[in-house]
Fold this sequence. Notes:
The structure holds two protein chains of two kinds.
Chain A: H1 4-26, H2 41-68, H3 71-103, H4 111-132, H5 137-165, H6 177-181, H7 183-231
Chain B: H1 10-16, H2 25-30, H3 32-62, H4 64-84, H5 89-114, H6 117-121, H7 125-130, H8 135-164, H9 170-173, H10 175-202, H11 209-233, H12 239-266, H13 276-287
Helix pairs in contact in B: 1-3, 3-8, 4-5, 4-8, 5-8, 5-10, 5-11, 8-10, 8-12, 10-11, 10-12, 11-12
Amino acid sequence: MKRYIPVALFALAAFVTPYSVNRVFLHTGIERKMGTVQKIFYFHVPLAWIMMALAVTCGIAAMIQLRRQSRLAEATSIAAGELVLITGLGVLITGPIWGHATWGRAWTWDARQVSTGLLWLIFAAFVLLRRYGAGGSDRLAAALAIFGAIDVPIIYYAVKIWKTTHPTTDVVGSLPPQMWNALWPCLIALVAMSIGLLLVRIRQEQGAMALDDAWIAFDERGAGKRGEVGDA
Amino acid sequence: MTGRARIPIASGLARREGLGFHSGGFAAAASPARSCYNRAVVPLLRQAWLLARNDLRQELRDLELVLTAAFFTVVVLVMFALAFAALPASAHVLAVPGMLWLGVAFAGALTLTRIFDREREADTLRALLTWPVDRVAIYFGKLLVSLSIVLGCGALLMPALALLFPAAQALVARPLESALLLLLGSLAYCAVGTLFAAGLATASGKNVLISVILYPLTSPALIFALVSTRALLEDHPQFPTYLGQLAAVDAVVVVLGAWLFEPVLLGGARKPAAGPSSRTRSRRGEAT
């Protein structure tokens, strides 16, 4: 049953995505100031929310991994950390496109831009550490994820006060309520897709761990047998 | 023995160190909070100081880390001076905080890569972990050592910047504020760095990863330090507020670092402790 949950989520995403595109591009008015480029908002904002949720998930899973030595938590933190990188890349690509049309500059050192960029860097470090760290770096990566999740609000606040001393841009105006209605199908599609990918990646990581354990057990048993022969 | 099993000898050491007086008697009768402070905090601080003193004494004998960090700071300073001396004077006030904290960050990364090296080279980290002290005391001891060296580098940077850039005069003209700012900024940096340096010390030969980890993670503290330094240079009325915010960040990272130190260094009961990717690699290494 469990293995069909990601399939169901992907199916939901496949069904909702065309509907959301249809709704965003054909049934929602064009914003007066920004024009068609504002449509990127419907994909940018859900991606940013998902990225934040995944960063927090990764931090909590890492905390459980460190305290309880849970394999499920470890697999979840790896999967969520990698997905933060992917969704973050989406946010960091769509954001400057939208910013270019709204503020006239792609990168304005806005508090949210900088905090997203730094969050992405922290999770890039997490993935690098998981991939290239030597033995024992799983614990270190978990600590990194916890620090990363806690750093998010601090970074945001830090950049905000930094901006207070260096004001350069104004903030994008609020949107009419009917435009928010087109946001929900996009959000559902992207959330379904992300959770589906997360579950698949968790399962993959658990499979890799089980395989490693089987290899180690096999090697140890082989070594034990060789040792017995040698002793005899 | 599982990694999680803590050796509850902190109080024993306290007795051996002649600190038993603090843990009972009048203090306990006076107030429970004070008794708790005397029983837990005083021995911890004493243990941390003993460990730090040992490291500092070794360092003072050969000055390896102090001299290399100081020389590196001077090199970084010369590079900055060459790169930014041509800037108009009005831009110096913006550039000086960046130069100061990047200098501290670079010298700090160099220090932190070496801070556990003695332990690793002499294979004494295990001995240190089996020593009858609270593990948090090891963290605070190492933090004290790295902080001392980074503060030394900062003490070199601040007057040198004031000498090179007239906009940085306030760093020398207001020594108390400057010293406090340097202390708070360096503390946040070293608190994060010591934790990850400890973790990497157990992972053989991967110390290079500390720069990958350290710079993104310490960015909030460095941003607060930048803001405070600029406020100091401009004589901004909100300088004490920014300093207070930096102190709050310090409190968060020091508590988090102390809390995570033991799990990061020792891990839990599960064996082998290595992650799946490293296990895969080691398995492949054996196979080839």
